[in-house]
Amino acid sequence: MASPVPMSNLLTRIAHHARLAYATPLPPQALAQRREALFKLVHEVDLKQHLGFVRPEVPREEIPGKGPIIRYMHIFEDDVISMGIFLLPKGASIPLHDHPQMTVASQLLWGSIKVNSYDWVRKDRHFASPDGQDYNLARLTLSEQVSAPQFLVLTAEENNLHEFEAMSDEGAAFFDVLCPPYNFEEDRDCTYYQCVDFNDTSSEALLREIPQPPSLVISRATYMGEEVLLS
Ligand SMILES: [Fe+2]
Question: How many domains does the chain have?
Fold first, then answer.
């Protein structure tokens, strides 16, 4: 039985439960139980009470010739978990990307986003095309607009790739928990993809790896909410 974390705030409890679920390999049933406990806590996060926001809106700032500026508030990271908040002004999008060997729990804090998610069908199988490039086969698993409050999750096996766009006037913000974090040295780098062909009947897509799109501009912003108090 896991011992409670004394005197902890919600974000500290999230980090603690992430360690319980992911710090060491667990049997499937134990992992499922601890993962559910973690997800329940992520779902409880409130933008004002825990994350220090006063008003749920994202001002639109733009770099000429590029896209609208997306802000990222870093909260906490160790070798098991990374926590942060993405702030997207209306019309900003994060292009299709993957999360290798990772679980990501997200709580949409405000606004509406259009989400497309994919599963790999054959990540290991490359399709050569006449232009000499390689493609990977994926299947569209989710394509819809969701509004806050909304909890979204992806795992190493399900919905591992996604892309989204902020649709509402006030922009959109989501609290992200990554287990484990991206780590280039451990083969968990973030790769961006472009869908070059889509089959409406099978929902299968051919995806091509691309460099990070230059229109994607992410700048840091200061986080004012609860701190993670883990030793
Ligand atoms: Fe993502």
Answer: 1
Measured in angstroms, how far is the CA atom of residue 99 from the centroid of ligand 1?
7
Global pTM? 0.91
**Domain boundaries, position 106:** 54-220
Which residues, in sequence order, are CB contacts of 195 under 8 Å at separation 6+? 96, 205, 206, 207
Task: List, run by run, the mean pLDDT of 10-residue segments along the chain (231 residues).
Answer: 66 96 95 96 96 91 87 96 97 96 96 97 64 82 96 94 96 97 91 92 92 93 94 71
Between the CA of 144 and the centroid of ligand 1 the distance, in Å, is 16
Q: Kindly give the distance from the C-alpha atom of residue 13 to the centroid of ligand 1, in angstroms, as a whole number.
A: 23
- The alpha carbon of 162 and the centre of ligand 1 are apart by a number of angstroms equal to 6
| Distance from residue 165's CA to the centre of ligand 1 (Å) | 12
Residues ≥6 apart with Cβ < 8 Å to 169: 90
Q: Is residue 37 part of a domain?
A: no
Domain with residue 80: its CATH number is 2.60.120.10
